[in-house]
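Annotators were shown the component list below and the corresponding predicted structure, then asked to write short factual statements about the assembly.
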Amino acid sequence: MIFKRFFQIRIHVLARLVVCGFAVITMLVGTAGPVLAQSPSQGGTLTVGMPETFKGFNPYVQIGRQGFNVAINVFDTLVTYGPDYVPKPLLATSWEQMDPRKWRFHLRKDVVFHDGTSFDAEAVKYSLERVREGRFGKNLKRVTEILVVDSNTIDIVLSEPFPVLPAVLTQQFASIVSPSAFEQLGVDKFSKQPVGSGPFRFDSQNSSGSVTLVRNEDYWRKDDNGNSYPYLDKVIYQIVPDRQTAALAMQAGDIDFNYEIPLPFVDSFRADPNIEVIETPTLGWFFIFLNTGKPPFADVHKRRAFQLAVDRESIVEAILLGDGVVALGPIAPSSWAYDSEIETKGFYGPKAEKKKAKAELEAGGGGFEFTMVYPAEDPFTGIAQAIHGQLGDIGIKVNLIGKDFGGALDDMVAGNYEALMMDWSGRIDEDLVFAPYFTTGGSSNFGNYSNQKVDDLINKAGSSSNLEERKQLYGEAQNLIVEDSPLIWINYPTDRKTMLINVIGYENVGDYRMRFHNVWKKN
Amino acid sequence: MSARWLFRRLFDLVFVMWFMATVIFFLLRVIPGDPVLMLLGMDQVSKEAVAILRTEFGLDQSLLSQYFLWLANIITGDFGVSLRSGIPVIDLVRSALSVTFVLAMFALLIGVALSIPLGIAAARRQGRMTDLALTTSALFGISTPSFVLALLGIYIFSVTLKWLPVAGYVPFLEDPLEALRHMVLPSIALGLVSAGILMRMMRRSVIDESGEEYVRTARAKGASEFKVFYGHIMRNALLPYMTLVGIEAGILLSGTVITESIFALPGLGRLMIENILHRDYPVVQAAVFVITAIYVLANFLIDFLYTVLDPRIKVK
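Structure shown to annotators:
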């Protein structure tokens, strides 16, 4: 498989060289040569396979990954990000920190909502107020006041320094809605007929749950050649709950684009000349919570023994069929805070370190037994079974309890477990990862982990505006956390999108969101 | 059909529905899994968020007061709203039922249309090659899970031949032809399994009835073979067959989780499974309520048909 990937990469490199060569020749020959760069063609319908029915499209309530994937094409946010996860302008042209507790955002002047009303500072204030009173309000809990300075400028006043604010404003729950539509329709109707300023207008949802978006003719963004986005006339999100059917529907040409495909299909899709597979590492983890609040994992040596005995490389290759990258700690390689030093100097490596694990085990009083809860579905079950075997090799007995996802979540929140496997999709700023998971009493710290030094480092990093300083502080915190091993990290999974080869221009950020403003279909 | 009989059946119907609704109400709450946690998911879960939502959904009240409130509401026809989407449950169930109904009717039609002639043919040639071939095929139909037939059908007719769409649902009123095209594969996948089950029953019934004394008497009285078969044997052979058709109809109408999932049909089976997984209590409760009603009504109809097919059976 590695060889196959290697050859695929080689072929890609070769193809690029050939294309570059042609481009150079074309430039030398002059304008008489063929135009090599494909210019996007307007029009067409993109049919996207989605795994579940939609809960609604009001961005201020929990509409899940499904709903937010529609929302991202209907609404814009003030700030956005690319594959480097560094905040960049969208509806806000720029922003500055007036003082540690006050941010000023300058807004675009050429934006209209789908209902024809204008986007301005009042609309931003209205939208952010809805965020604050909605289900995602806690993300803006430091905001004390939102002040309209003029129609294109807004100030956000905070109760304490919060350098992460621009990053938070990239999130879909901070979408800017049309205030007049929100008021007129009311929450329930708005959730079924959302009105934003994004590249596509919401058209309809049919009785089978499928959603149709149509081109927003007045969209303000343009490509490098001055052509207006979006290129597509329509995007249809079709509900196909069975992943195998979704894969087959793509092979039959009924679906142009798939939100996700089952792992076993990946190789055959890679080999299919009509299908393109784009794989981007995410910021998320497959991981195991260890309950540090009770035996056996109150003992740090037992936690470390577990951490060291796991052979992540074999899990990623054999169980996850090469999906994603072995995880060496909370900071994923695609994060700005990643320091590759961890690959050589980390507390543990991709392979099991049995000697060290046994030494820790001895220090912790020898072999022991514990129970691990896991969601009884793919690929959790496979990972759990592999861990059962790997820990068994050094004398740790694991009793596995598979539950459905809901049951596992129950146990997690109630702290009713010794070890518990989960996954999550990560966050774009490390403060949004470290603060909830690793500070004492953090909102996602379900293993009751506590280390004063770690708390101090995270608080310091969270109030600094200097990216380099923050990177160093999170690095230090990561080293301490990994040594304390309140979590066992397995891998950083891949955000995998598949599309027919006539679908051009899609950029995969790796955050499980599908942005279609710059996608077009070759005829 | 006396008024007393009707009243008793009606009472049975209400009792069974209440009983099932109560069982499902408490069962859902006994199994692990909290709707609030499922709604929040890993990204937003926190103790404060959980507490706020529990109050909003009334899940912080005692189990008994939740139960009586729910019961009082359904008596007035109010099944509540989905915890996940806020959509009235009755709308969700109604739209799912219409999909399942169409699918079930097509599947049953295929099942009946195949099983009657094939069952008769097998019975008439009992022990011969035709019988062996037909019963073996029926066994194949029964023992092949419908998802295998479904995936095989998709692969052959959609992916390779590109005659039919892979999956999806189009309402009949929107585009009848497209609606039919979308129903062909799922109905066949389900209908073939039903056909297998029903055919074996048809064959057995015909064989059993053919050996009865009244058949010999009819023949002795000089009745034509046509009259003997369709007037006597079939009329009696249809009784057990009809019971099975009723049971099959009940099964099909209560939603077929796997077939609906594979073919992306938003029917009752999918509504149930999706909402059980998310612990959306009001939706699951309403869906079970409707399915129970379908079963009871199907049974009621079969009992009634008995009296038509065999006048000796009197309702008491």
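Statements collected:
1. The mean pLDDT of chain B is 87.
2. The first helix of chain B runs from residue 3 to 30.
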